[in-house]
From TrEMBL:
GO terms for molecular function: calmodulin binding; metal ion binding. Residues 1-19 form the signal peptide. One of its GO terms (biological process) is response to salicylic acid. Keywords: Metal-binding, Signal. Pfam families: zf-TAZ. This is TAZ-type domain-containing protein. It comes from the Eukaryota. Residues 106-204 form the TAZ-type domain.
Length: 261
């Protein structure tokens, strides 16, 4: 059957022998697909109403497009069925677009995560003090435990640069511009500006009132994305905590059940 699976598929479809047709499709999917014959099998799958086999063939063509287009089956198909070639090319473009969109979404999430970590580190440094920077109203402790904020070191360097930079004008210093934007983002996310220890928090709160609608919309979108990322992280942490508690609970139940025997 293995050698004649393709011919048997055509016959089983023509005579409606469903069990044989299913077996042939299974054999073709598991053992026979290759870059050389996938175009031929795709065309037969479409003629024999085998949608799953057709989908598998299409995915294989997209995945190994360069090799498949060099096969004899592809060259024959281009002449005999230009519409199928166009359909496959469109599928390739669509898949490539989806892949780029997924990559862009992952990159965006990464940026929002970094901004969220930067906000946490900024509040931590200005409120508690860390490494070489202490809060304004406290003495920095010389012996501190390892910092748990991933962005702390980078924010610390930016703050130290910002405090000593002689340029510090819009567009004049890239590092100052970065910390300036981070301070403004913090201000928009801060709910306690009156007691906040982060520099310029109240200043940016007042500045918000004079922004154009377009600028305000851009900042609001950024804040919502960062907060959304924060919510995602919190929910993941909660799920992990619940999972660990559940596993501990099940262990305790198991231990208690063992005591009865």
């Amino acid at each position: 059957m293995k050698k004649g699976a393709l011919h048997l598929l055509v016959l089983s479809h023509a005579f409606s022998v469903l069990s044989l047709k299913k077996a042939c499709i299974n054999q073709l999917e598991r053992y026979f697909l290759s870059a050389e014959n996938v175009v031929d099998i795709l065309q037969i799958a479409r003629l024999c109403d085998a949608p799953r086999l057709s989908l598998i063939c299409t995915r294989m063509i997209i995945r190994d497009f360069k090799t498949v287009t060099q096969s004899e089956g592809w060259r024959v198909m281009r002449q005999a069925s230009p519409s199928l070639e166009q359909e496959l090319l469109e599928s390739l473009v669509e898949e490539d677009t989806k892949r780029k969109e997924r990559t862009n979404r992952l990159e965006e999430k990464k940026v929002y995560l970094q901004l969220h970590e930067a906000m946490e580190a900024l509040v931590h440094i200005c409120g508690d003090g860390c490494r070489t920077i202490g809060p304004r109203d406290q003495i920095l402790k010389s012996s501190q435990a390892a910092c748990r904020f991933p962005a702390c070191k980078g924010i610390e360097l930016l703050l130290r640069h910002f405090s000593a930079c002689k340029v510090r004008v819009p567009g004049g210093c890239g590092s100052c511009k970065q910390i300036w934007q981070l301070l403004e983002l913090h201000s928009r996310m801060c709910s306690t500006p009156e007691t906040c220890k982060v520099p310029l928090c109240r200043h940016f709160k007042e500045k918000m009132q004079h922004l154009s609608r377009k600028e305000e919309a851009k900042w609001n979108l950024l804040v919502s994305k960062v907060l959304e990322r924060k919510g995602t992280i919190s929910s993941i942490s909660e799920r992990r905590k619940f999972s660990s508690l559940k596993s501990v609970g099940s262990c305790r139940i198991q231990s208690n059940s063992d005591l009865h025997y």
